[in-house]
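Students often ask why we bother encoding 3D structure as a string. The short answer is that it lets us treat folding as translation between two languages. Here is a chain of 181 residues written in the first language.
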Amino acid sequence: GAGRVSQELASTMDIFQTVMDFAGIDPPENLTLDGKSLKNVLLLANATSPHAVLFHYCSSRLMAVRYGPYKVHFVTQKLADVNKYAQTDCVQGSPKGEIFAGRACLGKTTTAHDPPLIFNVEEDASEEYALPAAEYAGLLSEVDEAVQKHNAGLKPAPPQLGSNNPALQPCCDPPKCTCNY
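And here it is in the second language, the structure alphabet:
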């Protein structure tokens, strides 16, 4: 309800399903949606998230998995120098550049982690202190099982931001493209 804060797991993918639920509209049966309705989380004080797991992608590459209080990173992206970014690309809070060093999901601006990096995001929201993977073998096994189950249910779809229409592309690798913030 109004005036309260919830710590329940949610995603921007949930917005469409939530609006549909509030409007009393069922999604088409032939459409697979990743989001879930947050209607109960928004209305009921003790409602829990409809998500047990969230999968974080960069394009078609699985980067990380949120699993309960943990976030497990298989791949990370390098960020731009924060001080330089603040001075040149985000002057007075208006972003003009990209916070990531590059937008490629593969290549020199990404690092694969084996074993994956593990963070307890409820205690370390900024993900600064990786937990020792050897002590979390059970968690990694559960996450691996969740990923396998997720992969088994994936239904590939054509990219919504295909390379054929530059007007639909997000700003990537400035100054090669223009950001109109």
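Translate back mentally: The radius of gyration is 19 Å. Keep this in mind for the problem set.
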